[in-house]
Amino acid sequence: MKKIKRIMLLSCGFLLFLTACNNQEETTIKLAEVTRSLFYAPQYVALEKGFFKEAGLNVELQTTWGGDKTMTALLSDGADVALVGSETSIYVYAQDSKDYAVNFAQLTQTDGTFLVAKEPKPNFTWEDIKGTTFLGQRKGGMPQMVGEFVLKQHDINPQTDLDLQQNIEFANIPGAFVSGDAEYVQLFEPTASTFEKEGKGHIVASFGEESGHVPYTVFMAKQSFLKENDAEIEKFTKAVYKAQQWVEAHSAKEIAQVIQPYFEDTDVEMLAASIDRYKSQGSFATDPILDESEWSNLKDIMQEAGELPADVPYTDLVNTKIAEEVIGNKE
């Protein structure tokens, strides 16, 4: 009888242990992404493959459509973490914000836009842009600053050598290009490839290949959030790193199949073609560390565009300790 009671007690204890484990509450992280783009494939992989869940995190994703709106969400606590261009953290810091945003995990390391021409340009050269109407991105944002940086590298003055239009909202740029008179536009994937397939445009150059490595899209959080939720941020970064390694090790087709739920209106083959463009030019960072040379390149691009408000030190706005610990302790 004593043996039976002992077995029953052990069984009950084991069941209570399993129940307690299963009932552990996940920590919710509110994540705001600046736009919905294949450029952020590793993020969607982390969500779809359950890497955040494995880390004990419930990540709630919202798309905020624009750098200014994304930073407003972050600074007003509408989001805990923002996926946005790292230049936005410089703008906030320069405004003497007491609780400014700090970059802690890099997702992409090149520009993600492509130059799309309305008409076929089989022998395209950058000189072809001179004297044309160019539909650019929002002034002060990374796509526009990189675009101008690349044009200047090819001895093209964006203000005098072409008709540069910057008055269209980010989400409306593709439609404005199709219906308007602009001869060139700067587009992300999969829109660029979709336009090419539908005969609405033709990809003639990559701004990512032209501009080199830069911390283009980065996960950031306010100083206070990083300090008060250091364990959760480490878990978040670990999931991101796991997704980065997964993307590096798998084909564009496999990645497309995983993340298609985020791009339901685009077929897998088109997604794969777009992802392959990004993989081939090294757009996806393979680890979350934002290094100092990339930060310097960012400031050079901003300075060239006349948008650098202050020479912000790398050590003030970049935290690599979390990513370094994650990589050092990888399983």
TrEMBL record:
* Pfam families xrefs: NMT1_2
Per UniProt, subcellular location reads as: Periplasm
Is the keyword Magnesium assigned to this protein? no
The domain of life for this entry's organism is Bacteria
Alphabetized Gene3D superfamilies for the sequence: Periplasmic binding protein-like II
Supply the PROSITE patterns for this chain: PROKAR_LIPOPROTEIN
Query: What keywords sit in the KW lines?
Result: Signal
Signal peptide (UniProt feature, chain positions): 1-20
Query: What's a single GO CC term here?
Result: periplasmic space
Q: What is its main location?
A: periplasm
What family is this?
A: Belongs to the bacterial solute-binding protein SsuA/TauA family.
Name used for this protein in its record:
ABC transporter, substrate-binding protein, aliphatic sulfonates family
Protein source organism: Virgibacillus massiliensis
